[in-house]
Specification:
The protein is an alpha+beta fold and about 220 residues long. It folds into 2 domains: about 100 residues, K homology (KH) domain (GMP Synthetase, Chain A, domain 3); about 70 residues, Ribosomal Protein S8, Chain: A, domain 1. Helices cover about 40% and strands about 15% of the residues. The protein contains 6 helices and 6 strands. Strands 1-2-3 form a 3-stranded mixed β-sheet, sandwiched between helices. Helix 2 packs across helix 4.
Length: about 220
């Protein structure tokens, strides 16, 4: 089988990524988005979105059968191998130094490019990274015949963003639990929203939902009734 076409036109020169935990990550205070003097409109439930908890794709039936879990693990390992080969060819073409780390996290394959000067592969606010992740998923799906939910990190960008968002979500959860007023966060991609949802789910007295359409979909943190 021929190798997937390499997206050389995806990578553009970008500035260094700014810090993610500044005060402007929060949208205007609750109450400004709703009717005058009234509470802010509440979002729709987000159970079917990418940032909700998702069962393994195309593997649900097999996981219930003997050997199904092993098959699922084998597929995730194969996804990582295909993604690693694809990204190594990309790095060679772009003449960018970097090592490929492969892992499995939960029900997803995880691939990271580390070392070297990788800012151009990350892009402003991770935009180029998101595009490369989608292209890598397509390459994996073409090889395996199964939709991929592989996660790609470059230069530790996602790891740093996860840490920042975890701290932010914890702070917002405590504030909402105390004030009993919902708070909206700034728009985030599915990865970022899931990080926030996971943190909020672990805090008693509050819960989170998503509202809006991509690319302006955001998390809202609400007090429990």
């Amino acid at each position: 089988m021929s190798a997937p076409q390499t997206p050389t036109d995806t990578v553009t020169d970008t500035a260094a990524v700014s810090e993610a935990t500044s005060g402007d990550v929060l949208s205007p205070a609750p109450g400004t988005a709703g009717e005058a003097g009234g509470p802010p409109a509440l979002p729709d439930a987000d159970a079917g979105s990418d940032d909700a908890v998702v069962e393994p794709v195309d593997l649900e039936d097999e996981a219930d059968e003997e050997g199904g879990a092993d098959e699922a693990d084998d597929l995730l390992v194969r996804e990582g191998d295909v993604a690693g080969d694809y990204l190594e060819r990309l790095l060679d073409i772009l003449d960018v130094d970097g090592d490929i780390d492969l892992d499995v996290e939960g029900d997803r394959a995880s691939v990271a490019i580390v070392g070297g000067r990788l800012n151009d592969l990350i892009g402003a606010d991770g935009a180029t990274l998101e595009a490369l992740q989608e292209l890598t998923r397509l390459a994996v799906a073409q090889s395996t015949g199964v939709r991929s939910r592989l996660m790609l990190d470059i230069g530790g960008f996602r790891a740093k963003r996860r840490s920042d968002l975890t701290a932010l979500a914890g702070e917002v959860a405590r504030r909402v639990g105390s004030s009993h007023q919902p708070e909206r966060l700034s728009p985030m991609n599915p990865f970022e929203r899931k990080v926030v949802h996971d943190v909020i789910a672990s805090v008693a007295g509050v819960h989170s939902e998503s509202e809006g359409e991509e690319p302006n979909r955001r998390v809202v943190v609400l007090p429990d009734k």
